[in-house]
Design goal:
Blueprint: E1 9-18, E2 21-31, E3 36-40, H1 47-55, E4 62-67, E5 70-71, H2 77-82, E6 85-88, H3 100-107, H4 114-127, H5 129-133, H6 144-156, E7 162-166, H7 174-191, E8 194-199, H8 202-206, E9 211-216, E10 219-224, H9 226-231, H10 233-239
Parallel strand pairs: 3-8, 3-9, 6-7, 7-8
Antiparallel strand pairs: 1-2, 1-4, 4-5, 9-10
C-alpha cells in the first residue's frame, strides 16, 4: 500500500500512564493528512497525556503509534519533532525573558534552510500581526492571548506536518478564543498542516474541526462529526457537560 493512502497518524490499542497508574487504555484513532480533528472530554479523561505520548514525552506501555506510514512508537521526542510533529502545550508557555522574535526563531531550530525560516516567519507575522508589532518586546510582558498566539507561531516555525494543540483556549476571554480559533484554521489551510486539537471549549473547537473523538476515563468512547455530537443532547450531557 502506498504511504499516501495511509492516515498521517494512526494509533492502535495505546495504553500508558504514570508510575503504576494507568491513564490511557486501549486508545485507537486516526487522523488523515490535512484533517482538523478534535479530542474532547472532561477533566481527567487523559487528553493531555495522549498528546504527550504521541510526541514521545510519555512512553507508551502498550500499542502502536504509526506516523507517515511507519511505526514511531519507540522513537524519541526529538526524532518526532524533526519528522514534523509539533505540540503547543497548555497555557501559552513561552520563553518569558526572550523577545518575541527570539521565541519564534527557537521554534525553527530543526529547519536548516534559511529561506524556509524567513518564509515561516513572514507567514506567522501575517497571521498574528501583533507578534510583528512586538517583535522586540519580551514575551513575558504580553497578555495571555498574545502569549498563546506566540506559542502557536513558534510551533508553526518548524513547518510541522502534524500540529497538536493542548487546550489553546484555556483561560482566554471569548472574543480572544474566537480570534485564536480563526487563526488556527487559517494556518492549517495556508500550510496544509494537519491539526489535532484537545479542547474543553467544545463550541470553539467544533467550529474548525471535521471530526471529533470523545475520550472518557482514558478510553475513546466514540467518533462523530462535530455538528452531530453537539446537536445530540444526550451525548452532550453524558460526555461534555
Amino acid at each position: 500500500m502506498e504511504t499516501s493512502h495511509l492516515p498521517l497518524l494512526s494509533v492502535d490499542d495505546l495504553s500508558t500512564g504514570y508510575s503504576k497508574k494507568i491513564v490511557l487504555e486501549g486508545v485507537s484513532f486516526y487522523v488523515k493528512e490535512g484533517e482538523r480533528v478534535a479530542i474532547v472530554g472532561r477533566n481527567g479523561a487523559g487528553k493531555s497525556t495522549l498528546l504527550l505520548t504521541l510526541l514521545g514525552v510519555v512512553k507508551a506501555w502498550r500499542g502502536h503509534i504509526a506516523y507517515l506510514g511507519k511505526d514511531w512508537t519507540h522513537f524519541s521526542a526529538g526524532e518526532r519533532v524533526r519528522s514534523g510533529m509539533a505540540l503547543v502545550p497548555q497555557g501559552g508557555r513561552v520563553f518569558a525573558n526572550l523577545m518575541v522574535r527570539e521565541n519564534l526563531e527557537l521554534g525553527a531550530y530543526v529547519v536548516e534552510d534559511p529561506k524556509a525560516v524567513a518564509s515561516s516567519m513572514k507567514l506567522v507575522y501575517e497571521t498574528f500581526p501583533v507578534l510583528h508589532k512586538r517583535a522586540t518586546q519580551e514575551a513575558g510582558t504580553m497578555s495571555g492571548g498574545e502569549r498563546q498566539m506566540l506559542a502557536i507561531g513558534r510551533a508553526m516555525m518548524s513547518q510541522p506536518k502534524l500540529l497538536m494543540l493542548d487546550e489553546p483556549s484555556l483561560g482566554l476571554a471569548p472574543p480572544v478564543v474566537k480570534e485564536l480559533m480563526d487563526k488556527i484554521y487559517g494556518l492549517s489551510t495556508a500550510l496544509e498542516t494537519t491539526i489535532l486539537i484537545v479542547e474543553q471549549n467544545v463550541r470553539a473547537a467544533f467550529k474548525i474541526v471535521e471530526r471529533v473523538y470523545v475520550l472518557k476515563l482514558g478510553k475513546i468512547v466514540f467518533e462523530e462529526k462535530p455538528e452531530t455530537l453537539f446537536q445530540d443532547e444526550r451525548l452532550r450531557k453524558a460526555y461534555l457537560a
